[in-house]
Design a protein that fits this description.
Length: 197
């Protein structure tokens, strides 16, 4: 009898351990995407850019890098999307603003979200955005066209990165995808839109 009670207790402990393990693995599965996103943002892994609150204190260096702008729209979103310029020479530490033009060619209001990265991947740790249309989803009415900015700089700390000694070009790439939910419509970004001349 004692042996049966001991065996039942052992089975109960094993069952509880399995349930806890399955619950823990399920929790990790749900947390993996946000944790991976945080890891990429902190390290620049995969070309993930950084978000900065202010321009660099180190100032502007003489070394220049060409920034290329790549703009794409995924299938299913009836938009055109392009940068005002294909590339821009920029001194390290210098803040620049580049506008992108987005037009909805569809018959319905649509919402898009921009995924982004930089190449080479290692430069993501040093590419800082002060402001970007990519921080929120964007809603465009049929036929609507907007010009929205990205404000950025390359961190002067990049000169300490030996693997980027000969780097002369960084490509900033965006792809807009259809989104079901908008967090902030473009209409609310009027203070960021390109001034009309």
């Amino acid at each position: 009898m004692t042996e049966t009670v001991g065996h039942s207790a052992q089975i109960r402990k094993t069952l509880i351990a399995c349930v806890v393990l399955v619950a823990g693995m399920t929790g990790l599965a749900f947390a993996s995407a946000p944790l991976y996103s945080i890891f990429c943002q902190l390290t620049g892994y995969g070309g993930t850019t950084q978000v900065a609150a202010a321009a660099p204190a180190e100032g502007i260096l003489e070394r220049a890098i060409t920034i290329r702008f790549d703009a794409n729209v995924a299938t299913g979103l009836p938009w055109t999307f392009e940068a005002e310029t294909p590339s821009l020479p920029l001194k390290i530490g210098q803040t620049a603003t580049v506008f992108y033009k987005i037009t909805n060619h569809g018959a319905d209001e649509t919402v898009g979200v921009a995924a982004f990265n930089v190449q080479p991947d290692l430069s993501g740790s040093y590419f800082n955005k002060l402001e970007c249309f990519c921080f929120t989803d964007m809603r465009l009415k049929p036929g609507e066209t907007v010009e929205v900015p990205v404000v950025f700089f390359v961190d002067p700390a990049i000169i300490k990165e030996r693997d980027l000694d000969k780097l002369d070009t960084i490509t900033l790439s965006y792809t807009f995808f259809a989104s079901k939910n908008a967090t902030k419509p473009v209409a609310a970004l009027t203070d960021l839109q390109k001034p009309q001349l």
